[in-house]
From TrEMBL:
The keyword Chaperone does not apply. It is a multi-pass membrane protein. This is Tight adherence protein B. Keywords: Cell membrane, Membrane, Transmembrane, Transmembrane helix. One of its GO terms (cellular component) is plasma membrane. Residues 2-118 form the Type II secretion system protein GspF domain.
């Protein structure tokens, strides 16, 4: 989305920006954006062109729709949307890391607790019972 914003700031149309940016992206994303650029170049409806792009491009579509309906340049909205997507991705990673920490406690507890009991508590109890017997 930030690359789209740069291309739009440079004066490119949405279709030309989508075509240019699609040449720099990895393949599932590049194909989706290339399809949007082709649809826009053929003169199809903007909503239909972006609807075929998939869920990954929904924030860009919303930004462009909002900018078109309000008559403002879409570049700033695309940059902010990219920041929001990045922040959400980081939050998802942090949540996954927290879940991993919780999920690791049970196996570690099941492995270390018996080892602790067998190496420390059982010898102490055996030593004390050996000393207490007359």
């Amino acid at each position: 989305m930030e690359l789209m914003a740069v291309a739009l700031t440079g004066g490119a149309s949405v279709g030309a920006a989508a075509r240019t940016v699609s040449s720099t992206l990895p393949e599932p994303l590049a194909g989706q954006l290339r399809a949007v650029a082709d649809d826009l170049r053929r003169g199809e409806d903007t909503d239909e062109a972006w609807r075929a792009a998939g869920a990954h491009w929904a924030p860009a579509r919303r930004c462009l729709d909002l900018a078109q309906s309000s008559g403002v340049p879409p570049a700033e909205a695309l940059v902010r949307a990219a920041q929001d997507v990045r922040r959400d991705a980081v939050a998802d990673v942090e949540v996954a890391a927290a879940r991993l920490g919780v999920r690791l406690v049970l196996p570690l507890g099941l492995a270390y607790l018996p080892a602790f009991v067998l190496t420390t508590i059982v010898p102490v109890v055996l030593a004390l019972t050996g000393e207490l017997s007359w």
